Amino acid sequence: MAIVAVVQLSRNVPRFLGSCAIAGVLVAGVVAPVAMGAGVLSNEVSDSVDGISASLATSQQPLVTTVTDRDGNPIATLYDQYRLPVTYDRIAQTMTAAIVSVEDRRFWSEGGVDPKGMVRAALHDSSGSGGTQGGSTITQQYVKNYLINVVDRGNKAAQYADRADSIARKLREAKIAVQLGQTESKQDILSGYLNVVEFSGNIYGIGAAAHAYFGTTPDKLNVQQAALLAGMVNNPNLYNPYTHPQQALERRNTVIDDMVSNRVLAAKDAEIAKASPLGVVDNGPDIPSSTCMGAPADAGFFCAYAESYLQQAGFTADQLETGGYTIKTTMDPVVSQTVKDAVDANVPTTQNGVANTFAVVRPGQQTHEVLAMVANRNYGTDPAKGETSTNIVANASNVFGSGSSFKIFTSAAAMAAGVAGLDTPLPNASGQCFTQPGANQYTAQYCVQNDGNYPDPISLRDGLATSPNVAFVGLEQKVGMPAVLDMARKLGLRNSLNTNVAGATPDPSSKDTRYSEPQTQYFQDKLSFTLGNSPVSPLEMSNVSATLMSGGVWCPPNPILSVTDRNGQPVPVKQQGCEQVVPVGLANTLEAGLSQDTISGTSAAAARAANWNHPDIGKTGTTQFSESVAFVGGVDDYAVASMVFADGSHPQEICPGNPVHLGNCGHGAFGGTVAAPPYFHAFNQLLAGKPDIPIPAADPQYLR
Asked: Could you tell me the pTM of the whole model?
């Protein structure tokens, strides 16, 4: 045993001497920081200190980004670290007293480092008695935590070095701490430390911790609350009051005893505080969602679209999660909630296999503001609750298409090419087979039939209202697929047409053109396009209406009113410019043609049932097997698209009813009977008491 003891002692001698030398250098650093430049190790430290000091000065703490509606009401938070920074004067004295008592009693009188503490720690660590003592001041801990949680937040290797129990790291920290002690006030250092430290999980800083654990603010923390939070800093996981309540209680009481020893708390008050329960909020910690999935039911898809829109404008995901921005969106809370209620009444949130999406855009010559993006589904990850993590309103998620609403594109292309006007008679047999573009002797003809009895010929005006298939396929053949597809793109299908017929990004490696080609290419030789059997975005279809209602001006559907940074300064957002895609006369004439749908057309019966009497435009759509139905239109200064489609793993025919459901009803849903009612329901409320805005008159140039 004696030999072992001697060997152990001999092993500890170099460590002991080295620790004494380190302590001497640190002490010298307090007296004269230049002394830290001596020796190879100190040279290494000095070379990195200036760079780290610069990083500390320029690296901003990650802050929470707040997303609001157009009235400034918060709808979501985006963050990587949940942090609510506060200034020193907004932190209760109980909190500052608790953290100083347990972490650094000489904080108010020492420099950036504590020579006595560091010598004591060096002697203890060299003794071989087990464990280590940090000897770090609050200023040093501030430096360390700022490096880990801010400067090197995204660099695991650098964070490992920031935590390393090495002489170089401690010397570097000490020198930076001395610099901070010479340039910053004690109050700023203490508040900076309390704003940067972790309190377990994603909770950083005293502002977030006070809210998460006690539902209060830092200026209102009492003794026992402050002591609990001060105790957590040493080991946030071990002293988590939810996962380790007993350890948290014992640690809290230790801090309270330290406060008594440090003469900042009377013994009798300490006993009262120690006798109190933990007092944390139930089922906590209470922190908001860090994504748009935490938004209200009527705002989740809108928030997700705003986030993706900003990323396309040049913001990175990390910037949005850490920048502390305030993003004011164009979302109208009244419109959004009203249409959300309407679609939920039409198709319940958890209805098996049926989605009802609804988008509202405000037309304009300078911008097309998105006012609402809702669905009966909610934005989330639990399908059992009717949630989906796909933005089914913004994306080309309706893979079955929006049916005959695509006849808008054929009509516009025909008018632009001078092939037909609003009063032009169109051949309209009850059924007809057509030769596909580019067909050869082996290409099968495309045969269609009308669903019902129609006049032959029929005017384009009446055709838009009653939607015969034969007349529009014949018109599409006459105009040509390139012109029709180009018109669809111009009017608004900018993203939908870039997807393949599965609604996904084309895969060039696929040998199947359904998956390898974008719709703009795939449909060049397919007359089925005008019948709307391809994936489409509900938001983009509402923007098609907005383009017509803006006098033929297309603008990207814009969800952003403004972005301001953490200091309240405006941040510019890049946006694609608006385009005059069709003449004003053409847009007005097409609106006039679409104005009969709710009067004598395919949605007239539903309009009468809803006591609808507002001048509007509309075009319904129904796919061949009623797996998707749509109403696309607009009223006053609202452009809309309501789409009901099968969204489950086993799509079937959609059946009308209360509620709308999947089935084999034999007389499936139509756009007028299932997709239009939420529109009437919502806008009867939104337009109540407001004067009607008439539909523009047709331009004679586009009548024949």
From this structure: 0.89
